[in-house]
Amino acid sequence: xxxxxxxxxxxxRRNNSEHNALLEEVDSADTDAPDAVDKQADIIVREMxxxxxxxxxxxxxxxxxxxxxxxxxxxxxxxxxxRAKLSASVSLRSKRRPISMWKRMKYRISFTWKRIRDRCxxxxxxxxxxxxxxxxxxxxxxxxxxxxxxxxxWLFALxxxxxxxxxxxxxxxxxxxxxxxxxxxxxxxxxxITGMGGLTDSxxxxxxxxxxEVRAQSSLTYNMPFAYFFTMVCLTAYSYRLxxxxxxxxxxxxFANKVFCGWDFGVVTPEAAKLNANSLYNEFKELxxxxxxxxxxxxxLVRVGQYLCNVAVWVFSAALVLGAAAALWALCAWxxxxxxxxxxxxxxxxxxxxxxxxxxxVKLEFxxxxxxxxxxxxxxxxxxxxxxxxxxxxxxxxxxxxxxETSFGQEAYRLVLLDSVISLLVLPLFEFTxxxxxxxxxxxxxxxxxxxYNSLTLMYNQAVVWMGAMFAPPLVLGVTLKLLLLFYVxxxxxxxxxxxxxxxxxxxxxxxxxxxxxxPS
Length: 521
Description:
The protein is mostly helical. The protein folds into two domains: 3-95, no CATH class; 147-518, no CATH class. The protein is built from 19 helices and two strands. The protein has helices at residues 3-13, 17-28, 34-48, 59-71, 76-93, 101-126, 131-141, 143-181, 189-194, 224-245, 254-261, 270-291, 300-335, 340-361, 369-398, 404-441, 451-468, 475-496, 512-518, and strands at 213-215, 221-223. A two-stranded antiparallel sheet has the order 1-2. The longest helix is centred in the N-terminal third of the chain and has 39 residues, at 143-181. The protein is extended and about 95 Å long. InterPro entries: TMC, TMC_dom. GO terms for molecular function: mechanosensitive monoatomic ion channel activity. It is a multi-pass membrane protein. The chain crosses the membrane at residues 154-176, 188-208, 220-240, 311-334, 341-361, 373-395, 416-437, 463-489. It comes from Spodoptera exigua (Beet armyworm).
């Protein structure tokens, strides 16, 4: 008999008129008097004695009695009194030889370990990093903007795990080998900007890592090629499991889930309750706005025209991606080896401007807001992958006498560095300046949180990580630190410089589509 069925049966049986009369008689008396407490305890014990399974003398029944007592809406003193009376009643009812002390102790240890394990699992699963800040953002800007921060938090946790694995199995063994062989390089400030110079033959890039076994002072050896290969395979397999296996399926009965499971019962302050209520209110607005949107009936010629317009924009977008890839190849062949920073700067500018163009182009098409968002994400993803593949192919063919893996790792390092400067300094400064201008002079309007663009930058950032980590292992450490800083920067930008969107964004909080789009990168 389960815990729920026992407690529910007790509650139902307490509704019996005879026992309710007894309870009313006890409640009408002085509840502080010992006689009243004993009478009420006797009533509860008589209720529990109606269940044969509860009154058996074995560890399973003892666990059921403990769970039933825990569910009773009584004070601790009353529960202790009931427990003592139950123990005496069970001893009197027992007609068989009690179990041995050794077996009873074994049962107690087993039950204690089970409770500790369940509580530890509950603590682990209930732990949410940045929980309060994200709930505050959801309360002010809605769940769509909050989904960006959930996505950012997920990427931070993923890259943190990647950093731990790469550091433990790849970087530290090679660093110990460098100490043994006294292998070190002199670094300058310009090397940290270009990713070249002294960094070329360092732990930063693939070409520095030992191609054979690493031997410490003892007789133990460590095979670096196997460690490098299997670490990257495990990272890819873990990412595939997170993005495809655990996110497969979906959520049905969205409104019922929001109504009955949307409230956070862990809130303890009026401010937190207000934020939670505002967040649920915004989520219902978004869901109802999308649910109640009616498709306007149109003539078939109009629909054909809409489809042709969508196809034309797709063709233009594909031409834009191919043109950007061809221009990048020509630029690399012209100035790539001699001026690597120029290539990186032009590439970063293209990756900023092209998504903005995609954002404008999708307004010419006839999609609903959710589809328009995913179309923009898909086009930007194609742009990111196309550009990174061009760089990979170019550096693999450009220098036959050099380590092309190191050259590509240097390019990925420069891309991450420049993207960090833009994301952490340039764009926040621009948005703060725009917000201050509006606050002082009421000219224009304060910036809105650009959900699509910020999500696209995260996808591009992770695409560089997936391809760059193969050739620059410490790159994951830098990206993890960048994501940590980016959360606090974006939070302050949203709170102090941005206004809530005038138009509701489509909700995709915790949507596996974002993770699946991000995985192939």
